[in-house]
Amino acid sequence: MNEKLNTLRAGVLGSNDGILTVVGVLFSVAVATPNIFTIFIAGLSDLLACAFSMASGEYASVSSQRDAESSAVKVEQKLLQDDISSEIKAVKKYYVSRGISDETSTEIAKELIEKKPLDTVVNTKYGIQLGHYMNPWNAAFSSLVSASLGGIFPLLAMSLTSGIYRWPSTIVAVILSVAITGYLSAKLGNGLAKTAVIRNIIIGILTMAIHFALGKLMNQF
């Protein structure tokens, strides 16, 4: 379940990044030129670059975490063979820190080390559940798909509408998209949905305003 939640959370964050990076390029380019083909190509290029960048970054991050966890497990395997008394003390210390008496903690530590030595030490010392490592490919694929899906909404809104409807439809698409990602991220992280939605909407509006201003500035040169 933790792995699934982490993968979903990576997907939601990837989607939010996809929305904001694509809309930044769209607004800057659309202000500078009315050519819809140029706007579409610029937005599509940024969408693909963002999606693959998010995926590779997520893969590297999760792989590093997984390698660190695997390394910690190997260290504990050796300690269990060479210095089991120190491992018992470490487990005992863990339970003492949680308010259990010294005598009871010692009994718990000895019993757990006897029954599930490696599981016990890696969990109490590092918070690692043995065998429950997040798959870097799952996280990378989730980010790739979600960043692409997130960026596609403002891209289509800007590309498929024309005249007086182009800007309003794009702004609405961005606000709705970031509101959804804010709500989902709050639910997955047990946070306040209202706060996350408002925060994301403000960030989305600021992103559009800043890049609109940048596009205006570039258009003067």
TrEMBL record:
It comes from the Bacteria. Keywords: Membrane, Transmembrane, Transmembrane helix. It is a multi-pass membrane protein. The chain crosses the membrane at residues 20-44, 139-158, 164-184, 196-214. It is found in: Endomembrane system. InterPro entries: Ccc1_fam. Pfam families: VIT1. This is VIT family protein. The lineage of its organism: Bacteria, Bacillati, Bacillota, Bacilli, Lactobacillales.
